[in-house]
Write a structure and sequence with these properties.
The complex is a heterodimer. Chain A is an alpha+beta fold. Chain A is built from 3 helices and 5 strands. In chain A, strands 2-1-5-3-4 form a 5-stranded mixed β-sheet. Chain B is an alpha/beta fold. Chain B is built from 7 helices and 19 strands. In chain B, the strands form 5 sheets. In chain B, strands 1, 2, 5, 6, 7, 8 and 18 form a 7-stranded mixed β-sheet that branches. The relative contact order of chain B is 0.16. The chains are: A alpha+beta, B alpha/beta. At the A-B interface, helix 3 of A face loops of B.
């Protein structure tokens, strides 16, 4: 099992167990973590699962592919550590991952 | 000048379920007009998923969003339905009785329809521009913040800030630059989703000094009485500065909103139209709801469910449109009359 911590913009935090092979977005929805809407259900067709990846984890999580970059244009307050959580696959290497949800998903 | 169009059925929404409704209604000689706010046919499939794979349409191991729309258009071609695109239904008035329904449907493009049945196939709601969550932006909407351009002339001689990196943003930069006093394009990165020739044209204008391009994002707006004076921008390099401007055109994509459907007395439940599962009729006789917009015990928001729902709704619709005709259930495989309607006999 992989542990992921979801922080929010007000200082709150929740740590949950994620299953390898699922995505950071799916894990949030399954565990009832607020702040991620995922309007398109994970198809990389909206931008409402936007998260900020903790700087320490940016290298392991990696950079977005072209399709995700295109969709990030529709998110707000996009930062260098922004990712769409439906595109981050949970692997053993992400054990301990920390992400922060933005104040609004658009 | 209000045009009144009389027809058998008005279908609200031209996504996959609205399209298949044309087929099921057409087999029963019911003519339809479809109304959709998008400038194209296909709803979410065409707008959000055109290139993406769908694996659960019965009979298709694999089909793309645009692929299923194209197939449906071929399938419904024999019935000659009329499409009214770039229009939103704003009013639905009940003129008839529960036994003999008649409805007046008005759009935001001054069209009025009169139909015996209305099929609401509105999916997730109508696609409307996504508004950037910038504090106070609503104070400027309609005066100096615009999500669409209706009349280019209104920007003559003004400083316009266009925000975005897709075809909408680039097209308007190119269209408005001869009129505006100054056009600035703002985008969060130096890569664009827009067509390469548009991007090249924009870069040429920037090189020639005819317009500006800024890398960054809007963080706040400044102005008075609905009139913008500047947009506060956080540049890609982290710098924060005010960019003086008269107008701002943000192009951040589309989002789905329920809209006027909420006002039609359909006893909505969590923004969905409750229907029965024998006819998929709403609480108003003659108004049916099919596809993602409806709700009933066990409902799944699948395209295949919508297909089933329109088949049953069409049967009841026939009773309203042809109260004196007997409905004979036939198979397309064997019925000569159905095949004649389909143009295949």
């Amino acid at each position: 099992m992989v542990s992921i911590t979801y922080k929010d913009s007000e200082g709150g935090s929740r740590t949950v167990e994620a299953q390898e092979g699922s995505t950071v977005m799916e894990t949030a929805l399954r565990e009832g973590v607020p702040g991620i809407e995922a309007e398109c259900g994970g198809a990389c067709a909206c931008a409402t699962c936007h998260v900020y990846v903790d700087p320490d984890w940016m290298e392991v999580v990696g950079k977005p592919e072209q399709m995700e970059e295109d969709m990030l244009d529709f998110a707000f307050e996009v930062r260098p550590n922004s990712r769409l959580s439906c595109q981050i696959k949970v692997t053993a290497a992400l054990n301990g991952l920390v992400v922060t949800t933005p104040p609004r998903q658009g | 000048m209000t045009e009144i169009i009389k027809t058998d059925a008005v279908i609200v929404g031209a996504g996959p379920v609205g399209l298949f409704a044309v087929f099921e209604l057409g087999l029963l000689d019911i003519k339809a007009h479809l109304i959709d706010i998008l400038p194209k046919i296909g709803g979410q499939c065409a707008e959000l998923y055109p290139e993406k794979p769908i694996y659960d349409i019965p009979g298709f191991a694999f089909v793309t969003g645009q692929g299923i729309v194209d197939n449906l258009l071929t399938q419904i071609k024999p019935f000659g339905a009329t499409f009214h695109l770039n229009e939103m239904v704003i009013e639905l008035e009940t003129l008839g009785t529960p036994e003999h329904p008649l409805f007046r449907v008005k759009t935001d493009n001054e069209k009025t329809f009169e139909a015996k049945v209305v099929i609401i196939a509105a999916g997730g709601g109508s696609f409307q521009p996504k508004k950037p969550p910038i504090a106070g932006i609503d104070r400027y909407e309609g005066t100096s913040v615009h999500y669409a351009v209706r009349k280019m002339e209104q920007f003559r001689g003004r400083r316009v800030l266009v925000v975005g990196g897709g075809d909408s943003a680039l097209d308007w930069v190119l269209n408005l630059h001869p009129l505006a006093e100054r056009i600035t394009l703002l985008h969060r990165r130096d890569a664009f989703r827009a067509a390469p020739h548009s991007v090249n044209a924009m870069r040429e204008l920037v090189s020639a000094g005819a317009m500006d391009f800024i890398l960054g994002q809007v963080s706040a707006l400044k102005g008075d009485d609905g009139q913008l004076t500047a947009a506060t921008i956080r540049g890609e390099d982290g710098s924060v500065f005010d960019h003086p401007t008269d107008d701002m055109l943000p192009f951040f994509g589309l989002t789905m909103k329920l809209g006027p459907i909420a006002e039609w007395g359909l006893n909505l439940h969590e923004n969905l139209v409750p229907v029965d599962t024998a006819k998929f009729e709403s609480s108003t006789p003659g108004i049916f709801a099919v596809g993602d917009i409806n709700t009933y015990p066990g409902k799944l928001k699948l395209i295949l469910s919508g297909f089933h729902e329109v088949a049953l709704a069409a049967q009841k619709a026939h009773r309203y449109v042809y109260p004196d005709k007997k409905l004979l259930f036939q198979y397309t495989t064997s019925s000569t009359s159905l095949q004649r309607k389909l143009g295949v006999s």
